[in-house]
Write a structure and sequence with these properties.
By secondary structure, the protein is an alpha/beta fold. The protein has three domains: 172 residues, Thiamin diphosphate (ThDP)-binding fold, Pyr/PP domains (Rossmann fold, 3-Layer(aba) Sandwich); 164 residues, 3-Layer(aba) Sandwich (Rossmann fold); 171 residues, Thiamin diphosphate (ThDP)-binding fold, Pyr/PP domains (Rossmann fold). Helices cover 38% and strands 17% of the residues. The protein has 25 helices and 20 strands. It has a six-stranded parallel sheet, with helices on both faces. Strands 11-10-9-12-13-14 form a six-stranded parallel sheet, with helices on both faces. Strands 16-15-17-18-20-19 form a six-stranded parallel sheet, sandwiched between helices. The N and C termini lie far apart (72 Å). The relative contact order is 0.10.
Length: 570
C-alpha cells in the first residue's frame, strides 16, 4: 500500500510517544484519522470539540506530556477555541491539528469572504492563543513544521501549538518515510543562575522575621514537592499558593495558609500582606492574586520572583526586588544548597495566623437556614475522600472556590485541576473524563455547579461509553452564583443570573445511563454521600444547596490584601 503524508505524521507522533489522539471527527481530518488508526494510535472520540479539547487538557496536566487534539475545519476550529485558550493561559502542552480546505482554494480568490465549504482563517484566529501556529501549504513544510510545533509545546513556558492541515496535503502520496532531525525549537539557551542575586535572596530569607513562600502553577508543574518542604522548613516560612498552585503543598500542614487572592483564604492574604520576605515560585502575580491595589501588595516585603517566562518578569504588576529568570527546579536546587536556616523568624506571628486558619471563617454556614450549606456538604465529601487518591476537577463558579477552600489537597493523594486564566464554564465534565483516562487507578471527583454543567452536558454520553470512575457532585443553587454575587454587591440586583429553574440533573444522568441521586435536605445527606463515594463507575449526586450562599470573604476592587468583603446582608 502506498504511503501518504498523513501516514508520515502518524509515524512521527507515534515515535514521539503519542499513543492516543482526542478527536471530534470531520471530513477534512479523515485522512489523518485513518492514518493514525493504521499506525496503532488510539482515536478517542468525544461528543463535541470542546469535550475532546478539555479531556486532552486534563490528560496533559496530569501526565505533563503533550497531548494531541484533532478537529475538522470551520466549526470544528471555532468550537475548540476555548480549550485552546485554556491551554495557552494555563501553560498546558497541547498540539491542535485542524483540518482545512485544499491548497488550490486557499491560495486563490483571496479577496472573497469564503473560498470553500467550512473554511475559516484558522491561523489568524488562533495565533494570539498559541505559541506557534502555521498552515501547511507544501510537503516540505510538513517535515519542518510538525516537529517544530510539537517541540514548541514543551519549550520554556509550556503551551499549545496549532497545525492547520489542508486535506490535499494530508493525502499527498510519498515514496518513503523520510526521517527528520529531532531538533529543539524556541529559546533553547541554558538559563544561568545569577549567584550574586541568589546570595542576596538567601541572606534576606535567613534574616526575615515573617518569611512567606508563594507556590504557583510553575511550582506545581515542576513537581519538586519535597524540596519546597525543605526550603519552607529551613526558612521557617509560611506557605501560600496561587489558585493554580493548589496541590503543590499539603493544605493540612501547619505551614500552609491556603491560596491567595480574589477568592483566596483570608489568612493566606493576611500572611502576604504582613510578611517581610516573599519568595515566589512560578506564579504570575496577576490581578486575581494581588488584587487591584498593587502599590500595597506585600507592602513590607522584599519580593524575590522566580519564573520561566521572561515576559512576565519584564512586565511586573507589583514591585519586585529580585527577578530570577529560571525554571523553578533549577532555582530550588541552587537555593537549597546555599541555605543554612532562619532562626530569626517570628513564631508568635505564625501562631497567630495558624489560629486564624483554624477558625475557618470562610463560607460559614447560615445556622438559620433550612437549606443545605455548601461548606457542610464539602466537609462531608472531605471526610470520605481523605484517604483515597483523588483528583478534584471543577467547573467555574462559586462551587469552584468552595471546593478549593474546603477540600484537602497535597502532592501525594489529592490533586486539583481547574480553569484558571480563561475561567471557562464547562471545563469540568470533559476534563474529568480526561483525568480518569490519565489515571484510572484514582477517583475523579467532578465538583460542578448547575450553570457550568449545562455547558458540556453532552459529555455524559462520553463518560457512560467509557464507564470511568468519575463522581459528579452537582451543587445546584438555581443561580449563576459568582456573577450573581458580583451583580448584587455592585448594583444590588442580579436580573440575569439569579432565580433560575434548574433541570433535574439526576434524571438527566439516568437518561445517559449513569447512576444518580438527588438530595435537598440535611436529612439523609450523609447516607447519600456515602453511597455516592462507594458506588463503582460513573455516578452523579445532585445536591440542592442554599441559593443565598455566597463565596465569603472575597477580595474586591479597591481593597488591599489585608481587607476582604465579609458578605451581604440577607
Amino acid at each position: 500500500m502506498r504511503k501518504n503524508i498523513a501516514d508520515w505524521v502518524a509515524v512521527y507522533l507515534r515515535n514521539k510517544g503519542v499513543d492516543r489522539v482526542f478527536v471530534y471527527p470531520g471530513g477534512t481530518i479523515a485522512p489523518l484519522v485513518n492514518a493514525f488508526i493504521g499506525k496503532g494510535i488510539l482515536i478517542d472520540v468525544f461528543k463535541s470539540e470542546q469535550g475532546a479539547g478539555y479531556a486532552a487538557l486534563a490528560y496533559a496536566r496530569i501526565t505533563g506530556q503533550t497531548q494531541v487534539v484533532m478537529v475538522t475545519s470551520g466549526p470544528g476550529v471555532t468550537n475548540v477555541i476555548s480549550p485552546l485558550a485554556d491551554a495557552y493561559y494555563d501553560s498546558t502542552p497541547l498540539l491542535l491539528i485542524t483540518g482545512q480546505i485544499g491548497t488550490v482554494d486557499l491560495t486563490t480568490r483571496k479577496d472573497v469572504r469564503q473560498r470553500g465549504f467550512q473554511e475559516t482563517p484558522t491561523v489568524d484566529i488562533v495565533k494570539p492563543l498559541s505559541k506557534y501556529a502555521t498552515c501547511l501549504l507544501s510537503i516540505e513544510s510538513v517535515y519542518t513544521d510538525i516537529p517544530k510545533a510539537f517541540n514548541f509545546t514543551m519549550t520554556g513556558r509550556k503551551g499549545p501549538s496549532v497545525i492547520d492541515f489542508p486535506m490535499d496535503i494530508q493525502r499527498t502520496e510519498i515514496n518513503k518515510m523520510i526521517d527528520t532531525p529531532d531538533e529543539s525549537y524556541g529559546d533553547t539557551s541554558v538559563l544561568q543562575v545569577n549567584f550574586d542575586s541568589l546570595k542576596e535572596i538567601v541572606y534576606a530569607g535567613e534574616q526575615a522575621k515573617k518569611p512567606v513562600i508563594l507556590l504557583g502553577q510553575g511550582a506545581l508543574s515542576c513537581r519538586e514537592f519535597e524540596i519546597y518542604e525543605r526550603i519552607a522548613d529551613k526558612l521557617n516560612a509560611l506557605v501560600v499558593t496561587s489558585f493554580l498552585g493548589i496541590g503543590s503543598f499539603n493544605t493540612d500542614s501547619d505551614r500552609c495558609m491556603g491560596y491567595i487572592g480574589h477568592t483566596g483564604n483570608q489568612v493566606a492574604n493576611h500572611a502576604v500582606n504582613e510578611c517581610d520576605f516573599l519568595l515566589v515560585f512560578g506564579a504570575r502575580l496577576d490581578l486575581r492574586q494581588t488584587g487591584t491595589v498593587v502599590d500595597k501588595f506585600a507592602p513590607n516585603a522584599d519580593i524575590a520572583w522566580v519564573d520561566i517566562d521572561i515576559n512576565e518578569l519584564d512586565n511586573p504588576r507589583v514591585g519586585v526586588k529580585w527577578k530570577m529568570h529560571l525554571d523553578v527546579t533549577q532555582f530550588c536546587h541552587n537555593f537549597i544548597d546555599a541555605l543554612n536556616g532562619n532562626d530569626e523568624y517570628d513564631a508568635t506571628w505564625q501562631d497567630k495566623l495558624l489560629d486564624l486558619k483554624l477558625q475557618r471563617i470562610e463560607d460559614r454556614p447560615d445556622e438559620n437556614s433550612n437549606y443545605i450549606q455548601p461548606r457542610l456538604l464539602l466537609d462531608q465529601i472531605a471526610s470520605v475522600m481523605k484517604k483515597d487518591a483523588t483528583v478534584v476537577v471543577t467547573g467555574v463558579g462559586c462551587h469552584q472556590h468552595w471546593a478549593a477552600r474546603h477540600l484537602p489537597y497535597d502532592p501525594i493523594l489529592h490533586a486539583h485541576i481547574t480553569s484558571g486564566g480563561h475561567g471557562t464554564m464547562g471545563y469540568d465534565l470533559p476534563s474529568s473524563i480526561g483525568a480518569a483516562m490519565a489515571c484510572p487507578e484514582k477517583t475523579i471527583l467532578c465538583v460542578v455547579g448547575d450553570g457550568s454543567l449545562l455547558m458540556n452536558i453532552q459529555e455524559l454520553a462520553s463518560l457512560c461509553d467509557r464507564q470511568l470512575n468519575v463522581k459528579i457532585l452537582v451543587l445546584n443553587n438555581s443561580r449563576l452564583g459568582i456573577v450573581s454575587q458580583f451583580q448584587l454587591i455592585t448594583w444590588g440586583d442580579d436580573p440575569t443570573t439569579g432565580d433560575f429553574v434548574s433541570p433535574n440533573f439526576s434524571a438527566i444522568a439516568q437518561g445517559f445511563g449513569i447512576s444518580s441521586a438527588r438530595v435537598d435536605s440535611m436529612d439523609g445527606l450523609r447516607e447519600q454521600v456515602d453511597w455516592f463515594w462507594k458506588r463503582a463507575g460513573p455516578v452523579l449526586l445532585e445536591v440542592m444547596i442554599d441559593s443565598d450562599s455566597d463565596v465569603t470573604p472575597m477580595l474586591l476592587a479597591g481593597q488591599n490584601m489585608g481587607e476582604m468583603w465579609k458578605g451581604r446582608d440577607l
